[in-house]
Amino acid sequence: MKKTPLFETHQALNAKIIDFGGWGMPVQYSSVLEEHRAVRNAAGLFDVSHMGEIEVKGRDALALLQSLATNDVSKIPDSGAQYTVMCYPNGGTVDDLLIYRHSQDHYLLCVNASNIEKDFQWILENNKTPAEVTDLSPQTAQLAIQGPRSEFVMQKLTETDLSSIRYYHFQRGKIHGIESIIARTGYTGEDGFEIFLPAGKAADLWREISEAGKEEGLLPVGLGARDTLRLEMGYPLYGHELDQDHGPLCAGLGWIVKMDKESNFSGNFIGRDALLRQKEQGPGERLIGFEIPGRGIPRAEYPILKNGEVIGKVTSGSFSPSLNKGIGMGYVRTEYAAPGGELEIGIRSNTAPCVVVKTPFCKSKVKK
Amino acid sequence: MNFPSNLLYTKEHEWISVDGGKARIGVTDYAQSQLGDIVFVEVPEAGRRLKKQETFGVVESVKTVSDIYSPVGGEVLSVNAGLEAAPELVNQSPYEKGWMIEIRIGDQGELAGLLSAEAYRKYVEEEAGQ
User: Which uninterrupted H or E stretch holds A298?
Assistant: First the structure.
């Protein structure tokens, strides 16, 4: 099992460790519900060092990224970030990622842990430019601090004026003396930061943040609550809502697909033709969000039915700690995707009625 | 970890409390601690006949789904209706308020194969140590 630089820290906190895509990661420290509520009401500290960081540098960096990403990378300002996917020629997803722009010639890509090697190879194989591509994952740690008290807690540890960092922007600065990238991004729907720092300093910063957040009710948060938090926001997770067969359009991510982007390279990007065809014909299936008003908790892989006929499959499902009921996402045939529609979830030998709803399930509180 | 000595246990982490021809069944303190926050419990209706080792219910935490097996065969006499509104009782009081079903034992002989508190404690320590 691969370990992050914080593995011993998690063990010392008595975390329950699970295998997450080959990584030994904390799924919970005390209680998933408690950790979830800490993030919604106060603050939570996450080790997300398993995520990958790939640097793209050089005069052709923008051209390379424009040829791979579906979003328009030229629109990212310096010190800005953008959500995008990379697609295969057939329109399926290689990965979803954040691109952070230092300057026109220098970018940092934050990719999913289970896809680091695949993404790195994909970028190298499709790099027809002299741009330099480097996998910085092994020497980079990443902490996320999320929740309404995040700024207050972090401001105790840095002279960088955090209130000046807007949503989807970042600054380089020192936190507790450690050179970091401080980004106002996250995966919870709360205000907060994601911090990139040298792997060797991670345990030190973890301790400082835990201490600084104590009075505010900050808790360490594992992957269990990370998943319920992102699900309540309707955020996709690679391997569930996005995969090689499910591209951005059917996943409801049309807003990050720019068919006509400005580019100093060419207008084309990998997957564009397939996505254009999908857009014209309309995808055969669509990602929906749904709630179960009665008893029952949906889980990934459960069938979605209409009047007893299988019309789709759950991709993510859980008990929602904020709504106190079962919620989920899944793919259904397009004609059943309209909000308000009444469907059923097959749970063991029974079915539970569910209602198609617009996502997010809970109101996002990020600082726009 | 608490394993009352007046109960019998299974390797699937159920307990059974025998009172003459009747018995109560639930999941152990170890089981609830491994599952984490329990948010859903499904139990059968009274009157259902269970075989030894048959799945009679499901307990779900935020992240996991686990079957519950009947330690012995018998007929379900009553179920703990309180768990529908308060499944967290299984976490808070696994042997008392978190009981799941009460049965009339079909064959007292089946009790012989169950674990004592001491044997169960050893089994759990080995499992946790792995």
Answer: none
Using CA atoms, how far apart are residues B81 and B94, in angstroms rounded to an integer? 15
> How is residue A214 annotated by DSSP?
G
* CATH number of the domain that residue A152 is part of: 3.30.1360.120
Pinpoint the alpha helices (H) of A126-201. 150-155
Which residue has 């044997």 as its token pair? B119
* Cα–Cα distance measured from residue A344 to residue A321, given in angstroms and rounded to the nearest whole number: 21
Min Cα–Cα distance to chain B from A221, Å: 14
Kindly report, residue by residue over A209-231, the tens digit of the pLDDT: 999 999 999 999 999 999 999 99
Yes or no: say if B9 and B15 are a contact pair by the CB < 8 Å rule. yes
ipTM: 0.91
Residue A367 lies in a domain: no
**Low-confidence spans in chain A with pLDDT less than 50:** none
Say how far apart CA B105 and CA A228 lie, in whole Å: 41
List of chain B residues whose C-beta atoms are within 8 Å of the C-beta of residue A32: 36-37, 61-63
Domains of chain B as residue ranges with CATH: 8-107+115-129 (2.40.50.100)
CB-defined contacts A:B, below 8 A: 36
Domain encompassing residue A311: 284-357
Answer whether residue A38 is part of any domain. Answer: yes
A208 and A343 share a domain? no
Q: Is A1 a member of any domain? A: no
